[in-house]
Task: structure prediction
Amino acid sequence: MTINVGVIGLGNMGSSHLDRLANRISGVRLNGICDLKKELTDKYSKMYDVKVYDNAMDLIDSPDIDAVVVVTLEGNQEEQHRTHVPFVLEAIKQKKYVFCEKPIADTADDAMRVIDAEVKLGKRYTQIGFMRRFDPSYIELKREIDSGRYGEPLLVHATHRNETVDETYDTPMAIADTAVHETDILHWLLNDDYEFGSTFLPKKQTRYTHKNLHDPQVITIDTKSGVHVDLEVFVNNQMGYDINCEVVCEKGVLRLETPHYTSVKTNLHQEEYIPEEYTERFKTAYDTEMQEWANGINEDRAVGPSAWDGLISMTTVDALHKSRNEGGIKEAITLPIDRPELYSED
Ligand code: ISE
Result:
């Protein structure tokens, strides 16, 4: 069966999903697009010969659309707020599978609305765009941790570095838009729950930041079993997209392998390529998460990171924001409800 997919939101990530849906994902047809910006709908309707919907709810409700990808803005304090949740809720109401880019919502309270809707219907419809779970290097790292060969994990040192961000990116986005990936991948990697989180703003900032952004920031997370995580978020590093994760275990240190690019020895130096953008570093992961989404729909089930994972992430994000606002003290990370049966396989 070919799944007719509609995409809401055609910004950076939205256009990247258009490209993969139209060119690399099997079993789907790109059958509708929607965005507030006419220049974007004009451009992509021509590029992909696809119908434009003026209203996102019309796209979701249309009989010509079987499943929806929601890639509208989220997590930016100044721009459109809370745009994912109403679209996700409408898709669930229509019993259509929905791929929702991260973060699921702006707050844990909002994420709860998605959980409530799915629990009420007794079925998962949502996959959250935490693509790192489909990245071969993270999958391998998890396999090594799970093997138990190196004993228990004790510490995690992680870095999340971007080359540069523009003026619309502000201090809270370092958590809500960037560290949000680690709020998902770390509990998945460690098979553990979070207990405390903190966000510290070091006094010294890079000269390459701008007035609304404190850069870099340092986050810590402590898990219930006692693993301590430190995470550097540095989004104007001037050097490239650089994701690292080192897991210190009792009998060995495991380091996330970055994808292999040819390294060049020349002129008394050895040079290794660093990707410029996350879409390049995680290209395979982005393609795989979307292919798995489509395969799941064909089997009438939602796969991958769920709304419950979205809630864990937002609860953590809320605690990290609170800590930053209160000078970096540790905040408890407390989920509002016990995990519903519906999400027990995740
Ligand atoms: C962006 O939205 C992402 O998802 C990237 O992975 C992250 O590195 C970047 O900071 C975000 O803005």
Q: What stands out?
A: Residues 160, 162, 177-178, 181, 235, 278 surround ISE (CB under 6 Å). The first helix runs from residue 12 to 23. The chain is about 35% helix and 20% strand. The chain has two domains: 3-132+284-305+336-343, 137-276.
